[in-house]
Amino acid sequence: MKYSFAYKVITPRSIPINVSLIDTTIYKMQNGTDQYISKIITDVLEPKERINMALDYRKFKELFAEQHAIKSINEKLATKKGDISEKDFTISIDISSKTNWESILSSYLDEVPFQFAGKGEQNTIKMKLALEARAHKAHLILIEEPENHLSFSSMNKLIDQIKKKCIGKQLIITTHSTFVLNKLGLEKVILFKNGKSMTLNNLNSGTQNYFMKLPGYDTLRMLLAKKSILVEGPSDELLVQKAYYQLNNKLPIEDGIDVIAVNSLAFKRFLEIAKKLHLMVNVVTDNDGDVRGLKEKYVDYLGLDTIKICFDEDEDYQTLEPQIVKCNELTTLNKIFKTSYLHKHEMMAYMQKKTNKTNCALKIFESKEKITIPRYINDAIKE
Question: I need a labelling partner for 378 at 20 to 30 A (CA). Which of 14, 119, 128, 268 fits?
């Protein structure tokens, strides 16, 4: 799925709209020359510069034939007249009208041929050159997948450049990257799905700012998933994966279900999007010893058809680790962890140690031992 962004500019009907398409995936090579970047560079040149370049190129072609090495070769070929052809056979640069200096132009980065540079750097330079050459002329700018081959830091710089160069223009971008989506602004996103379109511009300003500033790339994975399960951290994520595998003999992602680790403080920000787009989202959360407060926190989402808040109401077992110990025999857990605890409170203390939390969850996930899954987690993985 791709996302589209639209930055609007009002243009009088009487003025024709100048449209510029920038697609850095075009990579046509001719005699070692990248025709896309050659075209952009020639667009940057003034008419006088283009004429001077053409004149100098013709002079170069004429001088080439006068070089000593070329003359020697042609003299040698002249001795073969009759053996090769009855006509004079010589070598030189093509000076016919079908060739011009643009077709042989090559670009270099620190003396390295452009085509041998990294793909990410090539795409970035192509994009920036295209913006430099076309942005000031165009009313509408179309950009195809600016994120190709770029790291997040490089992508961030490129997006900032695009925003600066396209101020006052109508800009439409297609992308598969939620990083690009976040950086350009959720309020400008148009989501197309099942023949319908939706916008996210009704999100409150706090939620918009949160996703704009978030450095990660998985913030809107739930838009792409058939169903999402939001969890508080890696331990919960592993246990949900284990629970689903035990029930279905496959991981949730194989059924289009994405388990996403989200800071519990951000659950409501994700749910705001899910509610507006009617996305199927379940939340797995600790009760933290305050069930009433938890219900008040999610009062706007309880009872919705597409959203389910899953938690245990036993306040004596506030977090994931005590819930696992409550549901399982010590013999099973000792076998998985290779421990020998005799009392459940000892096992809880062991699992809740900061250095053990994720490691215990990973051992449960990797173990072939079947464990009893807390009910609230089972509620989250069931249809």
Answer: 268
Phi, psi for residue 290 in degrees, rounded to 5:
-145, 75
The CA distance from 279 to 260, in Å, is 14
Extract the tokens encoding 30.
Answer: 């001719």
DSSP symbol at 265: G
Place of tokens 């695009």: 162
**CA distances to 57, 66, 103, 212, 302 from 100, in Å:** 8, 20, 6, 47, 70
Return the biggest CA–CA distance within the chain: 104
SS3 2: coil
Given a contact cutoff of 8 angstroms between Cβ atoms, the answer to whether 379 and 310 are in contact is: yes
Which pair of structure tokens corresponds to residue 204?
Answer: 């409150």
**DSSP designation for 96:** S
Q: What is this structure's pTM?
A: 0.64
pLDDT per residue as tens digits for the range 268-296: 988 988 888 888 999 999 999 999 999 99
Compute how many other C-beta atoms are within 10 angstroms of the C-beta atom of residue 175: 19
Q: Quickly list DSSP for 317-375.
A: S-SHHHHHHHHS-HHHHHHHHT---SSHHHHHHHHHSTTTHHHHHHHHHH-SS--PPPH
Report the 10 Å Cβ neighbour count for 343: 9
Could you give the CA distance from residue 335 to residue 195 in angstroms, rounded to a whole number? Answer: 52
Element spanning 127, H or E: helix 119-134
Residue the block writes with tokens 């913006």: 131
Amino acid identity for residue 123 in this structure:
N
pLDDT digits (tens, 9 = 90+) for 151-182: 777 777 878 888 887 787 788 887 777 777 76
Give burial (CB, 10 Å; 0-12/13-18/19+) of 254: exposed
Bigger pLDDT: 383 or 302? 302
Long-range contacts of 65-71 (CB under 8 A, 24+ apart): 65/90, 65/92, 65/93
